[in-house]
Recover the amino acids of this structure.
């Protein structure tokens, strides 16, 4: 039965409803166009606007530069297919993601997940977003809105990820709207070109999308003053970057950083622009004394040639956010102490064994797994302690903060016992798509898993509706030093309250961290 449901759902994400051209509820007028969406074929109470531009196409002279605002338009566009992901390549190194975790990756048309080639379903014309709303919601309904920034290590990701489509969640609540955003990644999003003063255009894409949502979401039944910015992994780090970069004008009412904060330490300081120049020179743009000429030349090299070059020969070359003291800073502790941190309620979360799928994949002994002390050390230094320090900084700055740890272990999503609650494993729990994961096809979802998913959805929905009073009404209390943290899914229990000291203690020399609570 579960397999049949999966097939029906997969069909629903791939085809447009027959009502797409006839039902007025599916057509919405915005400042930048008139969009006709589709009714979800499996969740009839949900409508989807799958492909809406929020900025001009970043091609040609716009490549590597900040996004350009769209002009006003009355063009009628049928928004029935999900947008292409921004340019990226399939990794060549064996990993959890390209072996057991492919349903966390953008749809790629059955392309080999480990050939290093440019994503065949990608395109530079990618600054698009998708919107899911209850079907019968109308302008003026003022539903809370949550804007999703996908993860992917700032090198991959996008809207069209099968386990990150929220029709099940929206159908269940009938009370909120979800927006998912494509933004430029890799060299296209974080080029750090010497010929430009904008090294972090991927973050500017995210801001441009937020501005579009704020200006237009009311037409879809949303409340422009009740937007939550939500991201996971690189999206979570981005979300926290916005809390500091736009602290005096955040646009959003609240934020949710899921496995990642500005303290994660992914930003770099390549002030000599060596990585961009290396790739440009390798592809025929050799202008060592003329950065503008280098940039202009490289804007005309085919995007697939760039991604193929990096993916097949230089996969480890880094194009991450750059510390520019405008969008990404070197002094977050000082900025928080100075109050240069958005005064909005925020959720910060982690999964219990975050680093298990991020460390080098143990292909030669995958059943035993990597050395556990190394995984624990990576989980602490890269994730748990960054979240703990961020939460404590926020508490000192009198910023309302909630925390959770996801610790669910379900046999059908955990092919090897050493994985535990791994990076991204809470995504399908929030989206309600956990049953699509058939990593271990011999088992299926359990009732406890379903209850945990619904509990997580309910807690986050309460935060969306009222980030101050909503969570406490369900027993989720604000975080103070070492205080209340929710733990979801441990031992099959949907939710428990635990002490922050139990989780964070090892960051400060107290106790031993348990990756399998």
């Amino acid at each position: 039965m579960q397999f049949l449901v999966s097939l029906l759902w997969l069909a629903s994400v791939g085809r447009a409803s027959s009502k797409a051209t006839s039902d007025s509820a599916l057509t919405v007028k915005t400042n930048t166009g008139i969009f006709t969406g589709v009714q979800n074929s499996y969740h009839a109470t949900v409508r989807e606007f799958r492909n809406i531009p929020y900025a001009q196409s970043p091609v040609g002279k716009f490549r590597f530069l900040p996004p350009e605002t769209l002009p006003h338009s009355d063009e009628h566009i049928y928004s029935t297919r999900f947008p292409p992901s921004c340019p990226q390549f399939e990794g060549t190194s064996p990993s959890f993601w390209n072996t057991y975790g492919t349903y966390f990756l953008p749809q790629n048309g059955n392309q080999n997940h480990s050939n290093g080639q440019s994503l065949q379903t990608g395109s530079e014309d990618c600054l698009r977003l998708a919107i899911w709303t209850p079907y019968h919601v109308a302008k003026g309904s003022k539903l809370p809105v949550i804007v999703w920034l996908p993860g992917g290590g700032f090198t991959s990701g996008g809207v069209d990820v099968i386990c990150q489509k929220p029709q099940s969640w929206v159908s269940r609540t009938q009370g909120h709207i979800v927006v998912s955003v494509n933004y430029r990644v890799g060299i296209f999003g974080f080029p750090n070109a010497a010929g430009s003063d904008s090294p972090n255009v991927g973050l500017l894409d995210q801001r441009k999308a937020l501005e579009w949502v704020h200006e237009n979401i009311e037409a879809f039944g949303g409340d422009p003053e009740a937007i939550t910015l939500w991201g996971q992994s690189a999206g979570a780090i981005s979300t926290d970057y916005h809390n500091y970069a736009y602290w005096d004008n955040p646009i959003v009412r609240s934020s949710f950083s899921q496995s990642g904060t500005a303290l994660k330490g992914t930003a770099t300081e390549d002030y000599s622009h060596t990585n961009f120049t290396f790739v440009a020179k390798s592809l025929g743009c050799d202008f060592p004394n003329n950065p503008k000429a280098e940039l202009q030349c490289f804007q005309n090299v085919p995007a697939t040639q760039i991604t193929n070059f990096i993916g097949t020969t230089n996969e480890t070359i880094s194009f991450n956010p750059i510390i520019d003291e405008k969008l990404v800073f070197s002094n977050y502790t000082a900025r928080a102490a100075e109050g240069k941190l958005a005064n909005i309620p925020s959720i910060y979360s982690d999964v219990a064994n975050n680093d298990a799928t991020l460390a080098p994949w143990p292909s030669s002994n995958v059943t035993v797994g990597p050395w556990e002390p190394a995984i624990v050390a990576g989980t602490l230094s890269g994730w748990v302690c960054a979240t703990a320090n961020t939460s404590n900084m926020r508490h000192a700055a009198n910023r309302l903060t909630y925390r959770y740890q996801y610790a669910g272990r379900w046999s059908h999503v955990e092919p090897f016992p050493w994985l535990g609650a791994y990076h991204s494993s809470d995504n399908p729990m929030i989206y309600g798509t956990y049953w699509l994961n058939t990593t271990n096809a011999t088992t299926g979802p359990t009732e406890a898993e379903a209850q945990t998913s619904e509990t997580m959805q309910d807690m986050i929905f309460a935060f969306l509706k009222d980030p101050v009073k909503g969570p406490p009404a369900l027993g989720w209390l604000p975080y103070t030093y070492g205080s209340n943290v929710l733990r979801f899914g441990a031992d099959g229990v949907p939710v428990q309250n635990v002490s922050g000291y139990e989780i964070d203690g090892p960051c400060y020399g107290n106790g031993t961290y348990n990756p399998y609570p």
